[in-house]
Design a protein that fits this description.
Elements: E1 2-5, E2 8-10, H1 15-25, H2 29-36, H3 38-44, H4 49-73, E3 80-81, H5 82-87, H6 94-106, E4 110-125, E5 128-143, H7 159-163, H8 172-176, E6 182-184, E7 189-191, H9 201-205, H10 213-221, E8 227-229, E9 233-235, E10 237-243, H11 246-251, H12 257-267, E11 273-279, E12 286-291, H13 294-297, E13 323-327, H14 329-340, E14 351-357, H15 365-376, E15 383-389, E16 392-397, E17 402-406, H16 407-410, E18 431-434, E19 443-447, H17 450-461, E20 465-469, H18 477-490
Bound molecules: flavin-adenine dinucleotide and iron/sulfur cluster (3 copies).
One iron/sulfur cluster binds near residues 167, 168, 169, 172 and 189.
């Protein structure tokens, strides 16, 4: 029996294999960059010495595990499906093998071979059953070009994401950078080149760097309790819910589910704080906030359609032990990457609950002002609510008037970066909440994890939420899948410069 990786014992890896892998891991460029910049990192004050060593330790652990996998894969004679590779590593958890293969591919050590097969299925098209051809994709993995000595690809700072025009301004890179070299606002990203020590941590966790979609699918399909949908991700259950609290009804966007769940968790001492979004000193310009009192929570209710770099303030919440995070799908994906690859894990392990909103697109604050002026001839300060419903963009005014225009008229104001986003329903959340699929005054709720189900059921039992199955209401789950599929299909591919 040998060593501990992720606190697990591995019994079929020899001491020599382990020592070799650990030695190779210590040469990893990220590990070296961090180690060499220890003084600057500690001087910067974001991480304590213990946290710094925790990070380094978990990076070496993760890299050692990858080296064990890579070294064994060098002995494979042919490219294999991921399921077959998983079978060959009995003592490493399947989800680790899967995430490691995806990371090794990005490091340039492993090639992915795509195979496309066409099959015919029967499908209802405009009420008529028709035979249609669909494409199925299969992937095999093999050590790069069959070579045994391959040079590691060094991850670049995220300026390459910004230069490619695909940064969604989630703010995670700024929270994670150990030397505070990155500043992200809702509209800009700046890296101080003199301070950046080129560790590439920001690239590892950026939702726009490399895809973790395949790892997500493989990992979720391992869990027999989960339902899996190509269009709305993996989930345990789905509901239509509405708050029973009169005070929340006054401020909510749809069913008031997000605010109700957060209030329930704060009041019942399940969490200590929430990261959410409120209006800044400019109405409708969102500002991420840390809320630790119920009386401040209602200020966060309601959708602000301008984007908020909410992950920016994650490091400010490190003193709270149990935090709930509310955000849009791109932010939940960033958190998932920080969790899969240890760059984010150590410092944000206090994020205990992730509530994801549905999101088709968001707008810059300036473009929201233009939208309201050009399409409605109104001043943004006169609005009490904005909403998207049944193909219309709707505004409510202080004089109780409601105005609407077709959604297609306002889509030109959406941020270009949102066209590179394929997730409508926040597949990486514990609980996803949106309006699509739910009747008026309700939210559609997709519960994706056991902790999510536990909280949702407790809130229902406490009488704060009235809930029905999403399949028992109209329009129901089919619409979530339909719109989820549309978003996925029209998503543009991301191309980053090789330089
Ligand atoms: C930019 C954006 C686009 C959206 N697009 C769609 C869509 O196309 N289809 C759909 O079905 N649903 C969409 N939603 C979700 C929907 O508008 C509601 O947020 C959701 O139904 C929850 O309603 P609720 O009444 O339960 O939330 P509430 O109880 O009113 O709580 C709302 C929560 O949203 C958070 N929030 C508000 N604005 C932002 C923001 N800019 N960024 C991050 N968090 C924010 C607040 O912190 C609050 O916790 C979108 C949300 C956002 C923020
Ligand atoms: S982590 Fe977020 S803010 Fe940073 S570059 Fe990536 S998308 Fe942009
Ligand atoms: S900007 Fe990125 S690459 Fe540079 S130090 Fe920060 S995390 Fe590392
Ligand atoms: S569409 Fe995607 S990228 Fe744009 S705000 Fe929503 S989740 Fe983020």
């Amino acid at each position: 029996m040998v060593q501990l990786i992720d606190k697990k014992v591995f019994d079929n890896i020899t001491p020599k294999e382990l020592i070799d892998a650990t030695y190779e891991a210590s040469n990893n460029f990220q590990v070296r960059a961090l180690f060499e910049a220890k003084d600057e990192i500690l001087e910067c004050g974001k991480y304590t010495e213990n946290q710094f060593y925790d990070l380094l330790d978990s990076m070496i652990d993760a890299e050692t595990e990858r080296k064990i996998i890579l070294n064994k894969m060098k002995t494979f004679q042919e490219a294999l499906f991921i399921e077959d590779i998983v079978d060959k590593f009995q003592s490493i958890p399947p989800e680790n093998v899967i995430r490691d293969i995806i990371y090794l591919r990005e490091q340039g050590f492993i090639d992915e071979q795509e195979e496309v097969k066409t099959k015919t299925i029967t499908k209802k098209v405009k009420g008529e059953e028709k035979e249609v051809e669909i494409k199925e994709y299969f992937y095999r993995y093999i050590v790069s070009n069959g070579k045994l000595d391959i040079e590691e690809r060094h991850f670049k700072p995220v300026s390459i994401i910004d230069e490619a025009g695909v940064c969604c301004r989630c703010g995670y890179c700024s929270a994670i950078c150990p030397v505070n070299a990155i500043e992200v606002t809702a509209d800009t990203l700046e890296i101080d080149k003199d301070v950046c020590m080129k560790c590439g941590l920001c690239f590892s966790i950026c939702p726009r760097s490399f895809s973790i979609g395949k790892a997500y699918e493989y990992i979720k399909k391992l869990d027999n309790e989960l339902n899996y949908s190509e269009k709305m991700g993996a989930y345990l259950s789905s509901y239509a819910g509405t708050t029973t609290k009169g005070e929340i009804k006054k401020v909510r966007q749809d069913g008031g589910i997000v605010t109700s769940l957060l209030e329930y968790m704060l009041e019942n001492d399940i969490i200590d704080a929430i990261i959410a979004v409120q209006h800044s000193d400019k109405l409708w310009k969102p500002e991420p906030v840390i809320v630790d009192k119920v009386e401040d929570l209602y200020k966060t209710a309601g959708t602000k359609y301008a984007n908020s770099p909410s992950l920016n303030i994650l490091d400010k919440a490190m003193d709270y032990e149990r935090v709930a995070f509310v955000g849009v799908p791109c932010m939940l994906k960033a958190l998932e990457k920080g969790d899969l690859f240890p760059a984010g894990k150590i410092f944000f392990k206090n994020i205990k609950y992730k509530i994801g909103l549905f999101c088709m697109e968001s707008f810059s604050y300036n473009d929201i002002i233009s939208l309201v002026e050009n399409e409605f001839d109104e001043d943004i300060n006169n609005l009490t609510k904005m909403n998207i419903d049944k193909g219309k963009f709707i505004i409510n005014l202080k004089n109780d008037e409601e105005k609407k225009v077709p959604l297609k008229e306002v889509q030109k104001y959406a941020r270009d970066t949102c066209h590179y986003c394929d997730d409508l329903t926040s597949i990486y959340a514990d609980i996803s909440v949106g309006s699509i699929g739910a009747p008026g005054g309700n939210s559609a709720v997709i519960v994706r994890s056991k902790i999510g189900e536990e909280i949702y059921q407790k809130a229902v039992k406490a009488g704060i939420i009235e809930s029905k199955n999403l399949t028992d209401v109209k329009p129901g789950k089919f619409l979530v899948e339909k719109i989820g599929g549309i978003k996925k299909n029209k998503c543009k591919p991301i191309q980053l410069s090789e330089e």
